């Protein structure tokens, strides 16, 4: 049975709990343990699938087709353990399950209450898959003291109480603010936040303290004493140059040792940190720099394309080069010529997206990349834009567009080369969807296989002819245009196994032009960069040498 580590946050939000959890997972792996990470989110949305990227950053998609919190992306990138649907649970999901059960009569006429019905449902979630791993790390979203987080904290209190002694610990992440006027780090907010935890029956075993300044021994002792935590378990989390430094930095500060001590695991297995040393070596000893433009819609918010930014960084690590990412608002190219804006970049990426806004600008960016021989990677909507661009400018379908934009506008304006996908094969059954279906979960979601064309660039890049990648889309390139588009130099070099759905398109004779209907960024890791990103950056490095 797994041991449980609960990770909570206090004082302020955005302290990097997800990252700390992921790094701790990586450190436990380095000591030979198996781990699974799980996120409990207090918000009432059933899942983040319908939330705007402005609200909640990127939606991370799992192999089993769940639309989850972006923290699951951190977990996967640091541990390489593929996240599952059951690794992300919100209050909304818990309440809707409880209410469904109530409607079905499962509770036999009882009054339904937060305690025990909601808390029991949360505890059931916590236990899923516990037999499979040594450690289950459960991060609770939000900050201690939030009203909506209470059922989760109460469920955890009960869970810890019900398990045998020594099987669960709690790690609390807080902030030590620095007062410049007095030149001091202040411990009071941390003390208050631990008090808040104690008032709901929880006591931290390990404190992780975010601080911009070195924490003096005296302050560490004070925190240990007042928060009732051993001094060696008061761990500093200083600002890092890169998130990938976290495992090594936290290890140096003694985080994994403190966690194993809290469980009474002695002697602790020695860690093997070579994976992370190599990752850091690739980052610190990178030579040169390439500039990549991401032409998208949510450019003010880096978190909206979190996995893409990370995958590009991994691509840089594969080539021992730094990748400078610049966000370019697609709508700019609807007013201005893209050339002066884009010509200083060594590669262009158009990411996934929904809705018509900005798409004409994205098409301009595609045209620029295609006609100027600039390496181009189109992801999901970015692939669809590449097809529309080719249809309009090469295949003579001058008003080519996507059904998505006509549906949104409520009128027919385009010749749809991208159509609404209503039926597809998953494994050995057919999935059907209607346009009016529920917005949440009405998409082709999760991992699907694709077959690659021998001799194509993607076959060379992947080094295999069968791949599995994650999807999240409703629309698809219409294959009735295949011959017309292929005659103009586009090649559909990746198809679904039944040969019906195009998965990859590439431009023949172009230095590097690939569009993919799936999201390769979701599977890239710092210690295993995704081949598409690694080769895209290789092409960017080559382009940078030509300038
Ligand atoms: N909006 C497009 C579709 O639904 C693309 C989706 C995406 O980029 N994730 O097919």
Explain how this protein is built.
The protein has 547 residues and is of the alpha/beta class. It folds into two domains: 276 residues, P-loop containing nucleotide triphosphate hydrolases (Rossmann fold, 3-Layer(aba) Sandwich), CATH 3.40.50.300; 261 residues, Rossmann fold, CATH 3.40.50.880. The protein is built from 19 helices and 25 strands. It has a nine-stranded mixed beta sheet with strand order 13-12-14-15-25-24-23-20-21, with helices on both faces. A hairpin with a 2-residue loop joins strand 18 and strand 19. Helix 1 packs across helix 9 and helix 12 packs across helix 19. 49% of the residues are buried. The model has no long low-confidence stretch (mean pLDDT 93).
What number is the mean pLDDT?
93
The name of the CATH architecture of the largest domain is: 3-Layer(aba) Sandwich
CATH homologous superfamily annotation of the largest domain? P-loop containing nucleotide triphosphate hydrolases
N-to-C CA distance = 58 Å
- Characterize the biggest β-sheet: 9 strands, mixed
Low-confidence stretches at least 5 residues in length (pLDDT < 50)? none
Taken from the alpha-carbon principal axes, the silhouette is: globular
The helicity comes to: 25-40%
What's the β-strand tally? 25
Number of helices: 19
- Percent strand equals 15-25%
Q: How many structural domains can be distinguished in the coordinates? A: 2
